[in-house]
Amino acid sequence: MAPHDLRRPFKRAAISDQQRRRDLTLQRQVQSRRDAQQHARSLASTVISLHLQQNEPEPDIELEPVPESESDQQQELSGNFSKDLDVRHAARLRGPEVRKWFARQLMLPEWMIDVPDRLSQDWYVFARPAGTRCFVVSSNGTTVSRARNGTVLHRFPSALPNGAKTRDVYGPAQSYSILDCIFHESDQTYYVIDMVCWRGYSLYDCTSEFRFFWLNSKLGETGACDPPSSCHRYRFSTVPVYNCDQSGLCSAYSQAGPYFKDGLLFYNKHAHYQTGNTPLALVWKDEKCSQYVIDTDSKGQVPSQQQVVLELQDDGKLITSDDPPVIFGCLDSDFIHVSALLPGNLLRFAIGDGQMSFVDGKLERADLHYLGKSNRARAFADGYSKIMFQHFARHSPLKFDDLLGSICSSDDQQNKPCEVEMTG
């Protein structure tokens, strides 16, 4: 039997701890609260005003600055920037640090290694649009979109609150909104997949269930979903979000839509908007709902061996971008010196015929072969879940039938099979 025909279980308890981390993440978000309003204000100000290029014009924005404390100054001088940098620090960053800052502000899904518990009760699912993930901020008569590496996609007038100087706005003059979007190039549309802040009201500490309700209730009221006009250059649109029962999963997977799909996104209904990687949002792909399931090289070809990007540490260890990171190997000091490598470098490796081995559910070793430094545009190393998803995609993929089979159906659903045309 060919490797890709092997049937795999829904759970890989000996390899994956995603469910344990999902439970811990839900517990932590109940136990710990942060100043979400200030975080949203800082993010909005940074997206609007951060200089990434010398010829980038300075917008007219009047978000209230925050006094800088002595501890902040000491942190800046020491070069130790925290995960939740605010605009005062981010405005001083350049190059890789800017890319890292912006990438950390988005909620980044893990890759689905195994099917979550209570998938049909506690999760939403929707088809992810193919395109550029970005933040869109409207404030003080302008709208700016920035990709996850910090570069400006567009600066434009919009029908979002305070998004254009030519439109009448209601609400406080200094209110701002932040949307988590994917820009779909072919139809020049921003598909909104999440709402972070609306008219100055932070939604960071609101559940996905509330954020999706608020998004669908508020976005259409502004006219932002109307066709483009002189004061509304790009169209915005929501994506259909389904309860992850059999019917919703089949709809997200098979129904045609206005955009090209790039896999399915699963959001836990109780999850807050958590910056950085989170196991409470998951991405899954197969060949029928995504053009790219297995990673390709710079020429768009699938390499014969799986490739991974890892970060080099001071002691030579090679780690993933997870918190805490997973150690995949270690480079000899002589090799590091000869290759002129530095701590923090992102390095590309191929996983050889030795593959990866596990002991008691933990990675013991990986057969790594050094290929060179990664593309400079990258902000982070690969996450453990992505590496494992790519590994399974080559050898024992988690299939759509596995997702359907894991759902606890209602009596009606058990008696009525889910008919789905596998057209992608």
UniProtKB/TrEMBL annotation:
Keyword Cytoplasm: yes
Function noted in UniProt: Functions as an U snRNP-specific nuclear import adapter. Involved in the trimethylguanosine (m3G)-cap-dependent nuclear import of U snRNPs. Binds specifically to the terminal m3G-cap U snRNAs.
Family statement drawn from the similarity comment of this UniProt entry: Belongs to the snurportin family.
InterPro entries (UniProt xref): Snurportin-1, Snurportin1_C
Protein name: Snurportin-1
Originating species: Erythroxylum novogranatense
One MF annotation (Gene Ontology) recorded for this entry: RNA binding
GO terms under biological process: snRNA import into nucleus
CDD domains tied to this protein: Snurportin-1_C
Compartments where found: Cytoplasm; Nucleus
Annotated transmembrane regions: none
One cellular component term from this protein's GO annotations in UniProt: nucleus
Comp. bias (Acidic residues): 57-73
Region (Disordered): 1-40, 57-82
Residues annotated as domain Snurportin-1 m3G cap-binding: 105-281
Position of the signal peptide: none
Source superkingdom: Eukaryota
Keywords: Cytoplasm, Nucleus, RNA-binding, Transport
Pfam family, one: SPN1_m3Gcap_bd
